[in-house]
Amino acid sequence: MLKEAIYHRPKNNFAYAYNESTLHIRLQTKKDDVEKVELIHGDPYVWEDGQWVSSKKPMEKTGSDELFDYWLAEVSPEFRRLRYGFSLSSNDENLTFIEKGFYKEEPKDCGLYFCFPFLNNADVFRAPEWAKDTVWYQIFPERFGNGNKANDPEGALPWGSTEPTTTNLFGGDFEGVIEHIDYLVDLGITGIYFTPIFKARSNHKYDTIDYMEIDPQFGDKETFKKLVEVCHERGIKVMLDAVFNHSGYYWAPFQDVLKNGEASKYKDWFHIWDYPVQTKPKPNYDAFAFVSDMPKLNTENQELKDYLLEVGRYWVREFNIDGWRLDVANEVDHQFWRDFRKAVKSEKEDVYILGEIWHDSMPWLQGDQFDAVMNYPFTTATLDYLAKSKTKAQDFANSITKVLNSYPVNVNEVAFNLLGSHDTPRILTICEEDKNKLKLLFLFQLSFIGAPCIYYGDEISMTGDQDPGCRKCMVWEKDKQDQDMFGFVQKLIKLRKERPAFGNHGSIRFVEANNETNHVMYEKTSGEETILFIVNNSDQELVVTLPEGIKGKVIQDIWNEKEFAAEADTLQAKLPAYGFQIISY
Protein backbone atom coordinates (compact mmCIF):
# COMPACT_ATOMS: atom_id res chain seq x y z
CA MET A 1 0.00 0.00 0.00
CA LEU A 2 1.16 3.53 -0.73
CA LYS A 3 1.08 4.95 2.79
CA GLU A 4 1.69 8.50 1.61
CA ALA A 5 -1.70 8.49 -0.14
CA ILE A 6 -3.66 7.32 2.92
CA TYR A 7 -5.24 10.37 4.53
CA HIS A 8 -7.69 11.22 7.26
CA ARG A 9 -8.30 14.35 9.33
CA PRO A 10 -10.79 14.48 12.23
CA LYS A 11 -13.38 17.22 12.75
CA ASN A 12 -13.49 18.31 9.13
CA ASN A 13 -14.94 16.90 5.90
CA PHE A 14 -13.30 13.56 6.79
CA ALA A 15 -15.00 13.21 10.19
CA TYR A 16 -18.11 15.17 11.07
CA ALA A 17 -21.52 15.01 12.67
CA TYR A 18 -24.18 14.39 10.02
CA ASN A 19 -26.93 14.90 12.59
CA GLU A 20 -27.33 14.90 16.38
CA SER A 21 -26.63 11.16 16.67
CA THR A 22 -24.66 10.13 13.58
CA LEU A 23 -21.02 10.54 12.60
CA HIS A 24 -19.63 10.19 9.09
CA ILE A 25 -16.04 8.94 8.93
CA ARG A 26 -14.13 9.14 5.62
CA LEU A 27 -10.78 7.82 4.46
CA GLN A 28 -8.72 8.50 1.35
CA THR A 29 -6.44 5.87 -0.21
CA LYS A 30 -4.48 5.58 -3.46
CA LYS A 31 -6.74 4.63 -6.36
CA ASP A 32 -7.11 0.85 -6.77
CA ASP A 33 -4.54 0.24 -4.04
CA VAL A 34 -6.71 -1.06 -1.18
CA GLU A 35 -9.26 -3.85 -1.47
CA LYS A 36 -11.08 -3.50 1.84
CA VAL A 37 -11.32 -0.97 4.65
CA GLU A 38 -12.98 -1.46 8.03
CA LEU A 39 -13.63 1.20 10.63
CA ILE A 40 -12.37 0.20 14.08
CA HIS A 41 -14.41 2.10 16.64
CA GLY A 42 -15.41 2.21 20.26
CA ASP A 43 -16.08 4.43 23.28
CA PRO A 44 -12.80 5.44 24.95
CA TYR A 45 -14.23 4.71 28.42
CA VAL A 46 -15.64 1.23 27.74
CA TRP A 47 -13.13 -1.41 28.86
CA GLU A 48 -13.43 -5.06 29.88
CA ASP A 49 -10.75 -7.06 31.69
CA GLY A 50 -8.25 -4.28 31.12
CA GLN A 51 -8.92 -4.18 27.38
CA TRP A 52 -10.48 -1.42 25.29
CA VAL A 53 -13.72 -2.68 23.74
CA SER A 54 -13.96 -1.94 20.02
CA SER A 55 -15.80 -3.29 17.02
CA LYS A 56 -15.39 -3.16 13.24
CA LYS A 57 -17.65 -1.88 10.51
CA PRO A 58 -17.03 -2.24 6.74
CA MET A 59 -16.46 1.05 4.95
CA GLU A 60 -18.08 1.64 1.56
CA LYS A 61 -16.03 2.86 -1.36
CA THR A 62 -18.15 5.86 -2.37
CA GLY A 63 -16.14 6.94 -5.39
CA SER A 64 -12.79 7.55 -7.05
CA ASP A 65 -11.07 10.35 -8.85
CA GLU A 66 -7.87 10.25 -10.93
CA LEU A 67 -5.64 9.74 -7.86
CA PHE A 68 -7.67 8.47 -4.91
CA ASP A 69 -10.41 6.17 -3.67
CA TYR A 70 -12.78 7.52 -1.02
CA TRP A 71 -14.33 5.39 1.73
CA LEU A 72 -17.21 6.18 4.07
CA ALA A 73 -18.73 4.64 7.19
CA GLU A 74 -21.68 5.90 9.20
CA VAL A 75 -21.67 5.24 12.93
CA SER A 76 -23.90 6.26 15.83
CA PRO A 77 -21.86 6.13 19.07
CA GLU A 78 -24.04 5.19 22.03
CA PHE A 79 -22.47 7.76 24.34
CA ARG A 80 -21.61 10.32 21.62
CA ARG A 81 -17.86 9.76 22.09
CA LEU A 82 -15.61 7.91 19.65
CA ARG A 83 -12.09 6.62 19.28
CA TYR A 84 -11.48 5.11 15.89
CA GLY A 85 -8.98 3.86 13.34
CA PHE A 86 -8.88 1.99 10.06
CA SER A 87 -8.07 -1.60 9.18
CA LEU A 88 -6.83 -1.74 5.57
CA SER A 89 -6.35 -4.83 3.44
CA SER A 90 -4.75 -5.33 0.03
CA ASN A 91 -3.56 -8.43 -1.80
CA ASP A 92 -0.31 -8.63 0.08
CA GLU A 93 -0.63 -6.44 3.14
CA ASN A 94 -2.79 -5.70 6.17
CA LEU A 95 -2.35 -2.45 8.09
CA THR A 96 -3.96 -0.51 10.89
CA PHE A 97 -3.96 3.27 10.41
CA ILE A 98 -4.54 5.42 13.51
CA GLU A 99 -3.61 8.92 14.69
CA LYS A 100 -0.14 7.80 15.72
CA GLY A 101 0.61 6.18 12.37
CA PHE A 102 0.64 2.71 10.77
CA TYR A 103 0.77 -0.59 12.69
CA LYS A 104 0.92 -4.20 11.53
CA GLU A 105 -1.14 -5.27 14.55
CA GLU A 106 -4.08 -3.41 16.05
CA PRO A 107 -2.88 -1.48 19.11
CA LYS A 108 -4.93 -2.07 22.25
CA ASP A 109 -4.37 1.43 23.68
CA CYS A 110 -7.28 3.57 22.51
CA GLY A 111 -5.24 6.70 23.28
CA LEU A 112 -3.30 6.05 20.06
CA TYR A 113 -6.44 6.21 17.90
CA PHE A 114 -8.19 9.13 16.21
CA CYS A 115 -10.53 10.98 18.52
CA PHE A 116 -13.99 12.47 18.06
CA PRO A 117 -14.26 13.82 21.63
CA PHE A 118 -18.01 14.39 21.84
CA LEU A 119 -20.89 14.79 19.42
CA ASN A 120 -22.11 18.18 20.59
CA ASN A 121 -25.50 19.10 19.20
CA ALA A 122 -24.40 22.72 18.80
CA ASP A 123 -21.59 21.68 16.45
CA VAL A 124 -23.82 19.90 13.91
CA PHE A 125 -23.90 21.69 10.55
CA ARG A 126 -27.50 22.74 10.03
CA ALA A 127 -28.82 24.45 6.94
CA PRO A 128 -32.53 25.23 6.56
CA GLU A 129 -34.40 22.01 5.86
CA TRP A 130 -36.41 23.63 3.06
CA ALA A 131 -33.23 24.38 1.10
CA LYS A 132 -32.78 20.69 0.26
CA ASP A 133 -35.91 20.61 -1.89
CA THR A 134 -35.71 24.08 -3.44
CA VAL A 135 -35.36 24.60 -7.19
CA TRP A 136 -33.94 28.09 -7.59
CA TYR A 137 -34.45 30.55 -10.42
CA GLN A 138 -32.08 33.49 -10.80
CA ILE A 139 -33.65 36.78 -11.87
CA PHE A 140 -31.72 39.83 -13.04
CA PRO A 141 -34.49 42.31 -12.14
CA GLU A 142 -33.73 44.85 -14.88
CA ARG A 143 -34.32 42.22 -17.57
CA PHE A 144 -37.11 39.89 -16.41
CA GLY A 145 -40.32 41.86 -16.92
CA ASN A 146 -41.54 45.45 -17.07
CA GLY A 147 -44.86 45.57 -15.27
CA ASN A 148 -45.02 49.28 -14.47
CA LYS A 149 -43.97 51.83 -17.10
CA ALA A 150 -44.44 54.65 -14.57
CA ASN A 151 -41.23 53.78 -12.73
CA ASP A 152 -39.08 53.30 -15.84
CA PRO A 153 -35.70 55.01 -15.44
CA GLU A 154 -34.79 57.90 -17.71
CA GLY A 155 -33.80 56.70 -21.15
CA ALA A 156 -35.41 53.25 -20.76
CA LEU A 157 -35.72 51.45 -24.10
CA PRO A 158 -38.71 49.44 -25.35
CA TRP A 159 -38.58 45.87 -24.01
CA GLY A 160 -36.11 43.74 -25.97
CA SER A 161 -35.79 46.37 -28.71
CA THR A 162 -32.02 46.07 -28.90
CA GLU A 163 -29.12 44.02 -27.63
CA PRO A 164 -28.07 44.61 -24.02
CA THR A 165 -25.04 46.78 -23.30
CA THR A 166 -23.24 47.52 -20.04
CA THR A 167 -25.29 50.70 -19.62
CA ASN A 168 -28.68 50.45 -21.36
CA LEU A 169 -31.94 50.07 -19.41
CA PHE A 170 -35.25 48.38 -20.26
CA GLY A 171 -37.34 49.05 -17.15
CA GLY A 172 -37.55 45.61 -15.55
CA ASP A 173 -39.22 45.81 -12.13
CA PHE A 174 -41.04 44.00 -9.30
CA GLU A 175 -44.41 44.32 -11.00
CA GLY A 176 -42.93 42.46 -13.94
CA VAL A 177 -42.04 39.54 -11.67
CA ILE A 178 -45.48 39.53 -10.02
CA GLU A 179 -47.09 39.60 -13.48
CA HIS A 180 -45.25 36.42 -14.50
CA ILE A 181 -45.32 34.51 -11.21
CA ASP A 182 -47.66 31.88 -12.67
CA TYR A 183 -45.03 31.11 -15.30
CA LEU A 184 -42.54 30.24 -12.55
CA VAL A 185 -45.09 28.17 -10.65
CA ASP A 186 -45.90 26.27 -13.84
CA LEU A 187 -42.21 25.53 -14.39
CA GLY A 188 -41.93 24.17 -10.84
CA ILE A 189 -39.74 26.88 -9.30
CA THR A 190 -39.73 27.09 -5.49
CA GLY A 191 -37.09 29.78 -4.90
CA ILE A 192 -36.12 33.06 -6.58
CA TYR A 193 -32.63 34.49 -6.26
CA PHE A 194 -32.62 38.19 -7.16
CA THR A 195 -29.40 39.95 -8.07
CA PRO A 196 -29.16 43.27 -6.13
CA ILE A 197 -32.31 45.37 -5.81
CA PHE A 198 -30.82 48.20 -3.75
CA LYS A 199 -30.35 51.74 -4.96
CA ALA A 200 -27.42 51.98 -7.38
CA ARG A 201 -26.35 53.74 -10.58
CA SER A 202 -25.66 50.74 -12.82
CA ASN A 203 -28.11 48.35 -14.44
CA HIS A 204 -26.61 45.44 -12.46
CA LYS A 205 -26.83 47.24 -9.05
CA TYR A 206 -23.64 45.76 -7.59
CA ASP A 207 -22.46 49.34 -6.93
CA THR A 208 -24.69 50.03 -3.91
CA ILE A 209 -25.62 53.63 -3.12
CA ASP A 210 -28.04 52.85 -0.28
CA TYR A 211 -28.32 49.46 1.43
CA MET A 212 -31.59 50.44 3.08
CA GLU A 213 -33.44 51.63 -0.03
CA ILE A 214 -34.78 49.86 -3.09
CA ASP A 215 -33.77 51.24 -6.45
CA PRO A 216 -36.77 53.30 -7.62
CA GLN A 217 -36.69 51.71 -11.07
CA PHE A 218 -37.80 48.42 -9.47
CA GLY A 219 -40.61 49.89 -7.38
CA ASP A 220 -40.99 50.84 -3.73
CA LYS A 221 -40.89 48.91 -0.47
CA GLU A 222 -44.63 48.28 -0.51
CA THR A 223 -44.37 46.69 -3.95
CA PHE A 224 -41.45 44.57 -2.81
CA LYS A 225 -43.38 43.47 0.27
CA LYS A 226 -46.26 42.50 -2.02
CA LEU A 227 -43.84 40.55 -4.24
CA VAL A 228 -42.54 38.55 -1.27
CA GLU A 229 -46.10 37.83 -0.12
CA VAL A 230 -47.15 36.70 -3.61
CA CYS A 231 -44.12 34.41 -3.79
CA HIS A 232 -44.81 32.91 -0.37
CA GLU A 233 -48.45 32.31 -1.26
CA ARG A 234 -47.22 30.29 -4.25
CA GLY A 235 -44.64 28.29 -2.26
CA ILE A 236 -41.67 30.28 -3.55
CA LYS A 237 -38.81 31.45 -1.29
CA VAL A 238 -37.07 34.80 -1.90
CA MET A 239 -33.32 35.38 -1.65
CA LEU A 240 -31.65 38.79 -2.02
CA ASP A 241 -28.11 39.62 -3.08
CA ALA A 242 -25.94 41.77 -0.79
CA VAL A 243 -22.54 43.30 -1.46
CA PHE A 244 -20.71 43.69 1.85
CA ASN A 245 -17.21 43.36 0.43
CA HIS A 246 -17.37 46.77 -1.24
CA SER A 247 -19.74 49.68 -1.69
CA GLY A 248 -20.56 51.79 -4.71
CA TYR A 249 -18.68 54.99 -5.48
CA TYR A 250 -21.77 57.09 -4.67
CA TRP A 251 -22.50 55.55 -1.28
CA ALA A 252 -22.74 58.52 1.13
CA PRO A 253 -19.92 57.42 3.50
CA PHE A 254 -17.46 57.08 0.62
CA GLN A 255 -18.51 60.41 -0.82
CA ASP A 256 -17.81 61.89 2.61
CA VAL A 257 -14.31 60.41 2.56
CA LEU A 258 -13.71 61.85 -0.92
CA LYS A 259 -14.87 65.26 0.31
CA ASN A 260 -13.30 65.41 3.77
CA GLY A 261 -10.34 63.07 3.45
CA GLU A 262 -8.63 62.22 6.71
CA ALA A 263 -11.16 64.38 8.61
CA SER A 264 -14.06 62.18 7.50
CA LYS A 265 -15.75 60.24 10.29
CA TYR A 266 -16.07 57.36 7.82
CA LYS A 267 -12.40 57.10 6.87
CA ASP A 268 -11.95 53.86 8.83
CA TRP A 269 -14.92 52.27 7.06
CA PHE A 270 -12.58 51.76 4.12
CA HIS A 271 -8.96 50.72 3.54
CA ILE A 272 -7.41 54.07 2.61
CA TRP A 273 -3.65 53.87 1.99
CA ASP A 274 -2.81 57.58 2.14
CA TYR A 275 -4.28 61.06 1.63
CA PRO A 276 -5.56 62.84 -0.34
CA VAL A 277 -7.82 60.07 -1.66
CA GLN A 278 -7.28 59.43 -5.36
CA THR A 279 -9.44 57.46 -7.78
CA LYS A 280 -7.34 57.95 -10.94
CA PRO A 281 -5.24 56.69 -12.60
CA LYS A 282 -5.35 54.03 -9.89
CA PRO A 283 -7.14 54.14 -6.54
CA ASN A 284 -4.98 54.61 -3.46
CA TYR A 285 -7.32 52.42 -1.43
CA ASP A 286 -8.36 48.79 -1.52
CA ALA A 287 -11.13 48.09 -4.01
CA PHE A 288 -12.86 45.18 -5.66
CA ALA A 289 -10.08 44.15 -8.04
CA PHE A 290 -8.72 47.62 -8.93
CA VAL A 291 -12.10 49.16 -9.75
CA SER A 292 -12.06 52.60 -8.17
CA ASP A 293 -15.89 52.78 -8.23
CA MET A 294 -16.09 49.81 -5.82
CA PRO A 295 -14.09 50.70 -2.67
CA LYS A 296 -13.54 47.77 -0.33
CA LEU A 297 -15.24 47.94 3.06
CA ASN A 298 -13.34 47.50 6.32
CA THR A 299 -15.65 44.98 8.00
CA GLU A 300 -13.37 44.91 11.04
CA ASN A 301 -14.48 48.44 11.91
CA GLN A 302 -17.16 48.08 14.60
CA GLU A 303 -19.35 51.01 13.47
CA LEU A 304 -19.47 49.78 9.89
CA LYS A 305 -19.97 46.23 11.08
CA ASP A 306 -22.95 47.23 13.23
CA TYR A 307 -24.46 49.05 10.25
CA LEU A 308 -24.07 46.10 7.85
CA LEU A 309 -25.39 43.59 10.39
CA GLU A 310 -28.50 45.76 10.75
CA VAL A 311 -28.86 45.72 6.96
CA GLY A 312 -28.90 41.91 7.14
CA ARG A 313 -31.48 41.92 9.92
CA TYR A 314 -33.67 44.69 8.46
CA TRP A 315 -34.64 43.00 5.20
CA VAL A 316 -35.40 39.74 6.99
CA ARG A 317 -37.38 41.44 9.76
CA GLU A 318 -39.35 43.94 7.68
CA PHE A 319 -39.91 41.99 4.46
CA ASN A 320 -39.69 38.34 5.55
CA ILE A 321 -37.09 37.37 2.95
CA ASP A 322 -35.79 33.80 3.11
CA GLY A 323 -32.15 34.10 2.16
CA TRP A 324 -29.06 36.18 1.52
CA ARG A 325 -26.63 35.59 -1.33
CA LEU A 326 -23.34 37.27 -0.42
CA ASP A 327 -21.16 38.73 -3.15
CA VAL A 328 -17.34 38.26 -3.10
CA ALA A 329 -17.84 36.50 0.22
CA ASN A 330 -14.34 35.04 0.50
CA GLU A 331 -12.68 38.48 0.72
CA VAL A 332 -14.62 39.42 3.88
CA ASP A 333 -13.22 38.37 7.27
CA HIS A 334 -14.55 35.18 8.84
CA GLN A 335 -15.58 36.85 12.10
CA PHE A 336 -17.88 39.21 10.23
CA TRP A 337 -19.67 36.23 8.69
CA ARG A 338 -19.95 34.49 12.05
CA ASP A 339 -21.63 37.57 13.48
CA PHE A 340 -23.74 38.00 10.35
CA ARG A 341 -25.09 34.48 10.74
CA LYS A 342 -26.08 35.11 14.34
CA ALA A 343 -27.66 38.46 13.43
CA VAL A 344 -29.92 37.31 10.58
CA LYS A 345 -30.86 33.99 12.19
CA SER A 346 -31.90 35.86 15.33
CA GLU A 347 -34.64 37.38 13.14
CA LYS A 348 -35.58 34.16 11.33
CA GLU A 349 -33.96 30.88 12.21
CA ASP A 350 -34.25 29.22 8.81
CA VAL A 351 -32.78 31.99 6.63
CA TYR A 352 -30.52 30.48 3.95
CA ILE A 353 -27.04 32.05 3.79
CA LEU A 354 -25.25 31.54 0.48
CA GLY A 355 -21.70 32.71 -0.20
CA GLU A 356 -20.18 33.47 -3.57
CA ILE A 357 -16.94 31.52 -3.44
CA TRP A 358 -15.41 29.98 -6.56
CA HIS A 359 -12.89 27.64 -4.93
CA ASP A 360 -12.59 25.16 -2.05
CA SER A 361 -14.89 26.56 0.63
CA MET A 362 -14.55 24.26 3.62
CA PRO A 363 -13.42 27.08 6.00
CA TRP A 364 -16.80 28.80 5.48
CA LEU A 365 -18.91 25.63 5.75
CA GLN A 366 -18.42 24.43 9.32
CA GLY A 367 -21.79 25.53 10.63
CA ASP A 368 -20.74 28.93 11.95
CA GLN A 369 -20.83 31.00 8.74
CA PHE A 370 -22.61 29.94 5.52
CA ASP A 371 -25.24 27.33 4.79
CA ALA A 372 -23.93 26.88 1.26
CA VAL A 373 -21.70 28.29 -1.45
CA MET A 374 -22.22 28.63 -5.17
CA ASN A 375 -20.92 25.30 -6.42
CA TYR A 376 -18.63 26.48 -9.22
CA PRO A 377 -16.45 23.31 -9.22
CA PHE A 378 -19.67 21.44 -10.14
CA THR A 379 -20.38 24.06 -12.82
CA THR A 380 -16.91 23.86 -14.36
CA ALA A 381 -16.81 20.06 -14.46
CA THR A 382 -20.30 19.77 -15.97
CA LEU A 383 -19.82 22.45 -18.62
CA ASP A 384 -16.37 21.16 -19.60
CA TYR A 385 -17.78 17.69 -20.26
CA LEU A 386 -21.30 18.21 -21.56
CA ALA A 387 -21.21 21.68 -23.13
CA LYS A 388 -17.66 22.34 -24.26
CA SER A 389 -16.42 18.76 -24.91
CA LYS A 390 -13.13 19.76 -23.27
CA THR A 391 -13.05 16.66 -21.11
CA LYS A 392 -13.98 13.00 -21.45
CA ALA A 393 -16.29 10.82 -19.38
CA GLN A 394 -13.66 9.65 -16.90
CA ASP A 395 -12.40 13.18 -16.24
CA PHE A 396 -15.97 14.25 -15.57
CA ALA A 397 -16.63 11.38 -13.15
CA ASN A 398 -13.33 12.10 -11.38
CA SER A 399 -14.10 15.80 -11.02
CA ILE A 400 -17.63 15.30 -9.72
CA THR A 401 -16.47 12.61 -7.28
CA LYS A 402 -13.84 15.03 -6.00
CA VAL A 403 -16.54 17.70 -5.56
CA LEU A 404 -18.71 15.28 -3.57
CA ASN A 405 -15.85 14.26 -1.29
CA SER A 406 -14.64 17.81 -0.69
CA TYR A 407 -17.52 18.51 1.71
CA PRO A 408 -19.69 16.69 4.25
CA VAL A 409 -22.85 15.07 2.89
CA ASN A 410 -25.10 17.53 4.76
CA VAL A 411 -23.21 20.39 3.06
CA ASN A 412 -23.58 18.80 -0.38
CA GLU A 413 -27.33 18.46 0.16
CA VAL A 414 -27.82 22.23 0.14
CA ALA A 415 -25.04 23.27 -2.27
CA PHE A 416 -26.17 25.86 -4.81
CA ASN A 417 -25.67 24.12 -8.16
CA LEU A 418 -25.72 26.50 -11.10
CA LEU A 419 -24.90 26.12 -14.79
CA GLY A 420 -25.18 29.74 -15.90
CA SER A 421 -25.58 33.16 -14.34
CA HIS A 422 -25.40 36.89 -15.03
CA ASP A 423 -21.58 36.54 -14.93
CA THR A 424 -21.22 33.84 -17.61
CA PRO A 425 -22.23 33.22 -21.24
CA ARG A 426 -25.62 31.56 -21.71
CA ILE A 427 -25.29 27.80 -21.44
CA LEU A 428 -26.92 27.23 -24.86
CA THR A 429 -24.31 29.56 -26.35
CA ILE A 430 -21.56 27.56 -24.63
CA CYS A 431 -23.16 24.45 -26.21
CA GLU A 432 -22.81 26.13 -29.64
CA GLU A 433 -26.61 26.13 -29.70
CA ASP A 434 -26.88 22.33 -29.62
CA LYS A 435 -30.14 21.81 -27.73
CA ASN A 436 -29.51 18.11 -27.17
CA LYS A 437 -26.42 19.07 -25.17
CA LEU A 438 -28.47 21.63 -23.27
CA LYS A 439 -30.92 18.89 -22.31
CA LEU A 440 -28.09 16.74 -20.96
CA LEU A 441 -26.92 19.68 -18.86
CA PHE A 442 -30.36 20.13 -17.35
CA LEU A 443 -30.69 16.37 -16.81
CA PHE A 444 -27.48 16.16 -14.80
CA GLN A 445 -28.10 19.37 -12.86
CA LEU A 446 -31.64 18.43 -11.87
CA SER A 447 -30.77 14.86 -10.87
CA PHE A 448 -27.70 15.82 -8.83
CA ILE A 449 -27.32 16.24 -5.07
CA GLY A 450 -27.94 19.80 -3.88
CA ALA A 451 -30.17 22.74 -4.79
CA PRO A 452 -30.20 23.50 -8.54
CA CYS A 453 -30.52 27.04 -9.90
CA ILE A 454 -31.77 27.95 -13.38
CA TYR A 455 -30.75 31.30 -14.84
CA TYR A 456 -33.80 33.11 -16.20
CA GLY A 457 -34.53 32.26 -19.82
CA ASP A 458 -32.23 29.23 -20.08
CA GLU A 459 -35.33 27.04 -19.83
CA ILE A 460 -36.66 28.56 -23.10
CA SER A 461 -33.29 28.34 -24.90
CA MET A 462 -32.20 31.96 -24.70
CA THR A 463 -28.70 32.70 -26.01
CA GLY A 464 -26.06 35.32 -25.27
CA ASP A 465 -22.33 35.79 -24.90
CA GLN A 466 -20.44 36.95 -21.84
CA ASP A 467 -21.83 39.97 -19.96
CA PRO A 468 -23.61 42.01 -21.26
CA GLY A 469 -24.81 39.47 -23.85
CA CYS A 470 -26.10 37.08 -21.19
CA ARG A 471 -28.42 39.78 -19.81
CA LYS A 472 -31.00 40.05 -22.59
CA CYS A 473 -34.61 40.90 -21.84
CA MET A 474 -36.68 37.83 -21.00
CA VAL A 475 -38.66 36.63 -24.01
CA TRP A 476 -42.39 36.58 -23.25
CA GLU A 477 -43.89 36.01 -26.72
CA LYS A 478 -44.96 32.34 -26.65
CA ASP A 479 -44.11 31.80 -30.30
CA LYS A 480 -40.51 32.91 -29.62
CA GLN A 481 -40.06 30.68 -26.58
CA ASP A 482 -38.72 27.14 -26.93
CA GLN A 483 -41.74 25.34 -25.52
CA ASP A 484 -40.13 21.92 -25.99
CA MET A 485 -37.20 22.91 -23.75
CA PHE A 486 -39.57 24.45 -21.21
CA GLY A 487 -41.55 21.18 -21.06
CA PHE A 488 -38.32 19.18 -20.75
CA VAL A 489 -37.11 21.19 -17.74
CA GLN A 490 -40.60 21.19 -16.24
CA LYS A 491 -40.70 17.37 -16.44
CA LEU A 492 -37.28 17.02 -14.79
CA ILE A 493 -38.34 19.28 -11.93
CA LYS A 494 -41.54 17.26 -11.50
CA LEU A 495 -39.56 14.00 -11.29
CA ARG A 496 -37.18 15.63 -8.83
CA LYS A 497 -40.09 16.53 -6.56
CA GLU A 498 -42.00 13.25 -6.90
CA ARG A 499 -39.17 10.71 -6.57
CA PRO A 500 -36.80 11.07 -3.59
CA ALA A 501 -34.05 9.06 -5.32
CA PHE A 502 -34.23 11.33 -8.37
CA GLY A 503 -34.17 14.44 -6.23
CA ASN A 504 -32.14 15.44 -3.23
CA HIS A 505 -32.79 12.47 -0.97
CA GLY A 506 -30.65 9.87 -2.68
CA SER A 507 -26.95 9.00 -2.49
CA ILE A 508 -25.09 9.17 -5.81
CA ARG A 509 -22.24 7.20 -7.33
CA PHE A 510 -20.78 6.66 -10.79
CA VAL A 511 -21.23 3.14 -12.15
CA GLU A 512 -19.30 3.61 -15.38
CA ALA A 513 -17.38 6.30 -17.22
CA ASN A 514 -16.17 5.22 -20.66
CA ASN A 515 -13.76 7.48 -22.54
CA GLU A 516 -14.02 5.51 -25.79
CA THR A 517 -17.75 6.03 -26.15
CA ASN A 518 -17.75 9.12 -23.88
CA HIS A 519 -20.77 7.94 -21.90
CA VAL A 520 -21.38 7.86 -18.16
CA MET A 521 -23.72 5.88 -15.93
CA TYR A 522 -24.52 7.05 -12.44
CA GLU A 523 -27.04 5.78 -9.97
CA LYS A 524 -28.96 7.33 -7.13
CA THR A 525 -30.45 5.34 -4.27
CA SER A 526 -33.05 6.26 -1.68
CA GLY A 527 -34.67 3.59 0.48
CA GLU A 528 -35.83 0.73 -1.73
CA GLU A 529 -35.51 2.60 -5.03
CA THR A 530 -32.44 2.88 -7.23
CA ILE A 531 -32.45 5.01 -10.37
CA LEU A 532 -29.83 4.51 -13.08
CA PHE A 533 -28.99 7.42 -15.38
CA ILE A 534 -27.21 6.73 -18.68
CA VAL A 535 -25.87 9.75 -20.57
CA ASN A 536 -24.51 9.43 -24.12
CA ASN A 537 -22.34 12.50 -24.63
CA SER A 538 -21.36 11.66 -28.21
CA ASP A 539 -22.63 12.17 -31.74
CA GLN A 540 -22.95 8.40 -32.28
CA GLU A 541 -25.76 6.02 -31.40
CA LEU A 542 -24.69 3.93 -28.42
CA VAL A 543 -25.55 0.46 -27.11
CA VAL A 544 -24.54 -0.10 -23.48
CA THR A 545 -24.71 -3.11 -21.21
CA LEU A 546 -26.64 -2.50 -18.01
CA PRO A 547 -25.28 -3.46 -14.58
CA GLU A 548 -25.62 -7.08 -13.42
CA GLY A 549 -27.69 -6.06 -10.40
CA ILE A 550 -30.70 -5.24 -12.59
CA LYS A 551 -31.20 -8.85 -13.75
CA GLY A 552 -34.45 -10.45 -12.65
CA LYS A 553 -36.00 -7.21 -11.46
CA VAL A 554 -38.99 -5.28 -12.74
CA ILE A 555 -37.56 -2.10 -14.15
CA GLN A 556 -39.20 1.09 -15.28
CA ASP A 557 -38.13 3.57 -17.92
CA ILE A 558 -39.34 6.53 -15.91
CA TRP A 559 -38.81 9.13 -18.64
CA ASN A 560 -41.01 7.28 -21.16
CA GLU A 561 -43.19 5.67 -18.48
CA LYS A 562 -42.65 2.09 -19.61
CA GLU A 563 -42.28 -0.96 -17.37
CA PHE A 564 -40.68 -4.30 -18.23
CA ALA A 565 -39.03 -7.31 -16.61
CA ALA A 566 -35.25 -7.65 -16.80
CA GLU A 567 -35.11 -11.32 -17.73
CA ALA A 568 -32.43 -11.56 -20.43
CA ASP A 569 -28.92 -12.79 -19.62
CA THR A 570 -27.40 -9.59 -20.93
CA LEU A 571 -29.40 -6.40 -20.64
CA GLN A 572 -28.66 -3.60 -23.04
CA ALA A 573 -29.91 -0.10 -23.69
CA LYS A 574 -29.79 1.77 -27.00
CA LEU A 575 -29.28 5.52 -26.82
CA PRO A 576 -29.35 8.03 -29.67
CA ALA A 577 -26.55 10.57 -30.11
CA TYR A 578 -26.59 12.96 -27.14
CA GLY A 579 -29.41 10.88 -25.70
CA PHE A 580 -30.12 9.48 -22.26
CA GLN A 581 -32.08 6.84 -20.43
CA ILE A 582 -33.44 6.85 -16.87
CA ILE A 583 -34.22 3.45 -15.34
CA SER A 584 -35.75 2.77 -11.94
CA TYR A 585 -35.46 -0.64 -10.23
What features would you describe in this structure?
The protein has 585 residues and is an alpha+beta fold. It folds into four domains: 3-123, Immunoglobulins (Immunoglobulin-like, Sandwich), CATH 2.60.40.10; 134-245 and 300-375 and 410-498, TIM Barrel, CATH 3.20.20.80; 246-296, Oligo-1,6-glucosidase, Domain 2 (Oligo-1,6-glucosidase, domain 2, Alpha-Beta Complex); 507-584, Sandwich (Immunoglobulin-like). The protein has twelve helices and 30 strands. The strands form seven sheets. Strands 20-19-18-17-14-13-22-21 form an eight-stranded parallel beta sheet. A hairpin with a 2-residue loop joins β4 (47-48) and β5. The longest helix has 18 residues, at 302-319. The protein is globular and about 80 Å long.
Which helices and strands, and how do they pair?
Blueprint: E1 15-17, E2 23-30, E3 36-42, E4 47-48, E5 51-52, E6 55-58, E7 60-64, E8 68-75, E9 82-89, E10 94-98, E11 101-103, E12 114-116, E13 136-139, H1 174-179, H2 181-187, E14 191-194, E15 198-200, E16 208-214, H3 221-233, E17 237-242, H4 252-260, H5 302-319, E18 323-326, H6 334-347, E19 352-355, E20 372-373, H7 376-387, H8 393-405, H9 409-412, E21 416-418, H10 427-430, H11 435-446, E22 451-455, H12 483-498, E23 507-514, E24 519-526, E25 529-536, E26 542-545, E27 554-557, E28 562-565, E29 572-575, E30 580-584
